[in-house]
Design goal:
The complex is a heterodimer. By secondary structure, chain A is mainly alpha-helical. Chain A has 18 helices and no strands. Helix content of chain A is 68%, strand content 0%. In chain A, helix 6 runs parallel beside helix 18. By secondary structure, chain B is α+β, with helices and mostly antiparallel strands. Chain B has two domains: 34 residues; 170 residues, outer membrane lipoprotein receptor (LolB), chain A (Clam), CATH 2.50.20. In chain B, strands 4-3-2-1-9-8-7-6-5 form a nine-stranded antiparallel beta sheet, covered by helices on one side. The chains are: A mainly alpha, B alpha+beta. At the A-B interface, helix 3, helix 4, helix 8 and helix 10 of A face helix 1, helix 2 and helix 5 of B.
C-alpha cells in the first residue's frame, strides 16, 4: 500500500469518471436493505423521516426559533434544511424530501469517497473501503432525513479539490460541510496538510486560497452565528440549544462520561451500541494508522470520534463515526483476502438490518 | 518592500478575503433561503421562556362567575409509593393544593378532564402547563396570531393559540418585554381567565398558599 504524494501533481481537471458499476450495485444493495427493512417496520416513510429528521424539517418549514430551557432547533445546522426546502420547492412532499435527498447524495458521496481513497491509497483499498461504507451497520443514517450523506459529499469533494489544486472549490465545499454538521470543522486538518505539501509549488494567490479553504469551516460557522444573531438576537443560540439537548463541552466531560457510564446504560440500555462503536472506532483508527493513513486524516478521524465524549456522554458516537473516513480505510486495511472481505461484507449487511430495525426504538 | 514580503502579504490578503467571502456568502444564503420566525412565534417563545424561568405564579382566577385567588408551583413532587415526578401544585384558597401531573400534551389532557375546574384553572394559571403549550405551538408552527390589545390596565399584545375548533388560549403579554400578564382559555363551552403574577419562591408566599417551600428542580 502506498501513500501518494500530493505535492508533485500538477493542477488537474476535476472531471470525475462515471461511478463504476460495482459501486452503483453496492449502493443499491445497501439502500435496498435499509429501505426494505424500514418499510417492513412500518409501510410509510416514517422510519426514515423520524428522530432528528423532524427537527430538520421544522427548520426547513419555519426557520429557526430558540425557546430557552427547551430543546430547540438552532442545534441543527442550516445547510440540510436549506437543501430540503429546495427539494420541496421542486414539488416533493416534506416527508419524502429528506430520504430522497440523502439517498441520492450518498451515491455521489460514495463516488467521491472512492476517488479520494484511490488518490490517497490504492485501487483495491478504495474499492473495499467504499463497499464497507455503503454497507456499514449505521449507514442506515445515510438513507434518513439526516445531513450525513450530504456532509460525506462535501468533505470528500473538498479534500479531492484540494488534492487537485482547486482551492476555491475546496473552500466552498469545506464551508458548506461545516454549515451542515459541526464535524465539517475537522476538515481543516487534512486540508492544512494538503496545502502544506503543495506550498512550494503554489503561487502566492493560490497559497492564499489554500489557506482560505483551511479557514473556511470556521468562517462558515461564524456565518451561522451571524445569521442567528440577525434572526434570534443571540449569536450563540446554537450552543445554548445544544445545552438543552444535554451537550456541553467541558474539559472534564470525558471523565464524566466514563464515570457515569453504568448509570447512563441503566437508564438507556441502547447506549451500549454507542459504547461498542466508540471502542470499535478506536480500534479502526489504530488499523488506519497501520494502513498508513496520513496523520492529518487520523487527527480528523480521532476528533470526530473522541471529541463528542467531552460533552459528557457517548450518545450518537456511532453515527458521528460515519463522517470519519479513516475508520473505513482502517477496516479495509484489515481485510486483504477475498475470504475475509466476503465475511466482513456479510456481517456488515446483517448488522445493517439490525441497525435499521433499532430505529423503531432509538435515535441513531 | 522585498518581493518575499509582498508575496506573503498577497497570500494573507487573499486568505482574509476568502474567509470573509465564505462568511458573507454563508450568511446571505441562510438569510435568503430560511424564513425568519414570525412575530407570533417569537412572542410565544419569549412568553414560554418567562414561564420557564418562574416556577411560581400567583393567580387571580375568574371562572364560573367567581373570583378565586390561588398560586401554582412547578417542581418535582413525591407521589404515594412512587418516585418523585414533575408536576404542578395548584393551590386555591380555600382548599387543599391540587396536584397536576406534567403531560406531554397539556391541552388534550385538559380537554379530557374538562369536567374538573381545577384542571382548567391549571391550564391558565400554572407555568408548568403554559410553558410547554406555548413552546410546542411556536415550534410546530401551530396556528398563532398576535394583535394589539389591552389587559391588566395596560396596553398589551394578545397572542392567540388556536389548538382545535373549540380550544383556544389567549395570552396577553407586555408589548416591550413579552412578560405574560393575563391568560384566557376557551375550552369546550368553558372559559377561565387568570391574572398572572410571576414570582420567586419565598417562604412567605409558600406558606401563604400552603405550598412546599423548596421543591428544587433537579438537573435533567
Amino acid at each position: 500500500m502506498s501513500v501518494r504524494s500530493a505535492t508533485i501533481a500538477p493542477r488537474r481537471r476535476l472531471a470525475l469518471a462515471p461511478a463504476p458499476r460495482w459501486l452503483l450495485g453496492w449502493w443499491a444493495v445497501g439502500r435496498a436493505v435499509t429501505i426494505a427493512t424500514a418499510l417492513a417496520l412500518k409501510p410509510t416513510v416514517w422510519t426514515l423521516d423520524r428522530w432528528d429528521g423532524r427537527w430538520y424539517r421544522m427548520v426547513a418549514r419555519g426557520g429557526y426559533l430558540l425557546v430557552p430551557g427547551r430543546q430547540s432547533d438552532p442545534a441543527f445546522f442550516p445547510l440540510y434544511p436549506i437543501l430540503l426546502r429546495g427539494v420541496h420547492a421542486a414539488g416533493v412532499g416534506w416527508g419524502i424530501a429528506g430520504p430522497l435527498l440523502s439517498n441520492g447524495a450518498l451515491l455521489l458521496g460514495l463516488g467521491l469517497f472512492y476517488a479520494l481513497t484511490r488518490e490517497i491509497f490504492s485501487e483495491q483499498l478504495a474499492r473495499r473501503s467504499t463497499i464497507y461504507l455503503a454497507l456499514f451497520p449505521l449507514s442506515y443514517v445515510f438513507s434518513m432525513a439526516y445531513p450525513e450523506s450530504v456532509v460525506l459529499v462535501l468533505l470528500t469533494a473538498a479534500s479531492l479539490a484540494g488534492l487537485r489544486r482547486r482551492w476555491w472549490l475546496a473552500a466552498i465545499c469545506a464551508g458548506a460541510a461545516a454549515l451542515a454538521r459541526p464535524e465539517g470543522l475537522f476538515l481543516a486538518f487534512p486540508l492544512a496538510d494538503i496545502a502544506w505539501r503543495q506550498r512550494q509549488s503554489l503561487s502566492p494567490a493560490r497559497r492564499g486560497a489554500a489557506l482560505a479553504a483551511v479557514l473556511a469551516p470556521v468562517a462558515a460557522i461564524a456565518s451561522y452565528s451571524l445569521y442567528l444573531a440577525t434572526v434570534l438576537h443571540d449569536p450563540l443560540a446554537w450552543s445554548q440549544a445544544e445545552r438543552a439537548w444535554g451537550r456541553q463541552f467541558r474539559i472534564t466531560g470525558a471523565f464524566h462520561a466514563f464515570a457515569h457510564v453504568s448509570t447512563a446504560v441503566g437508564h438507556r440500555p441502547w447506549l451500549v451500541r454507542d459504547l461498542i462503536c466508540f471502542f470499535v472506532y478506536l480500534g479502526l483508527l489504530y488499523a488506519a494508522r497501520r494502513a498508513r493513513t496520513p496523520p492529518a486524516w487520523l487527527a480528523a478521524g480521532a476528533a470526530v470520534v473522541i471529541l463528542p465524549v467531552f460533552t459528557g456522554a457517548f450518545d450518537s458516537v456511532g453515527r458521528f463515526g460515519l463522517l470519519a473516513p479513516p475508520l473505513f480505510w482502517g477496516l479495509a486495511g484489515l481485510t486483504t483476502s477475498r475470504r475475509s472481505e466476503g465475511i466482513v461484507r456479510s456481517v456488515l449487511l446483517a448488522l445493517l438490518v439490525v441497525g435499521t430495525v433499532s430505529l423503531a426504538y432509538v435515535f441513531p | 518592500m522585498s518581493s518575499a514580503v509582498r508575496r506573503a502579504l498577497l497570500s494573507v490578503a487573499v486568505t482574509l478575503a476568502g474567509a470573509a467571502g465564505v462568511t458573507a456568502s454563508g450568511w446571505a444564503i441562510q438569510a435568503a433561503a430560511l424564513p425568519p420566525p414570525t412575530s407570533a412565534t417569537r412572542v410565544a417563545a419569549d412568553a414560554s421562556a418567562w414561564f420557564h424561568e418562574h416556577r411560581l405564579v400567583v393567580d387571580v382566577f375568574h371562572f364560573d362567575h367567581r373570583r378565586i385567588k390561588g398560586a401554582c408551583l412547578r417542581g418535582w413532587f413525591p407521589r404515594p409509593h412512587e418516585p418523585k415526578a414533575r408536576a404542578s401544585l395548584l393551590s386555591l384558597r380555600p382548599g387543599r393544593p391540587l396536584r397536576v401531573p406534567e403531560r406531554r400534551h397539556p391541552w388534550i389532557a385538559a380537554a379530557r378532564r374538562s369536567g374538573q375546574p381545577g384542571r382548567i384553572l391549571a391550564l391558565v394559571g400554572c407555568t408548568g402547563e403554559l410553558a410547554p403549550a406555548l413552546a410546542a405551538a411556536a415550534q410546530s408552527g401551530g396556528h398563532l396570531t398576535t394583535e394589539r390589545s389591552y389587559a391588566a390596565n395596560q396596553p398589551a399584545v394578545a397572542l392567540e393559540l388556536e389548538h382545535a375548533k373549540a380550544e383556544r388560549l389567549t395570552l396577553y403579554v407586555s408589548p416591550r418585554t413579552d412578560e405574560p400578564l393575563v391568560a384566557f382559555v376557551h375550552l369546550h363551552e368553558l372559559e377561565a381567565t387568570s391574572r398572572l403574577f410571576l414570582a420567586r419562591v419565598t417562604p412567605l408566599l409558600a406558606s401563604r398558599f400552603h405550598l412546599p417551600r423548596a421543591p428544587r428542580e433537579p438537573r435533567r
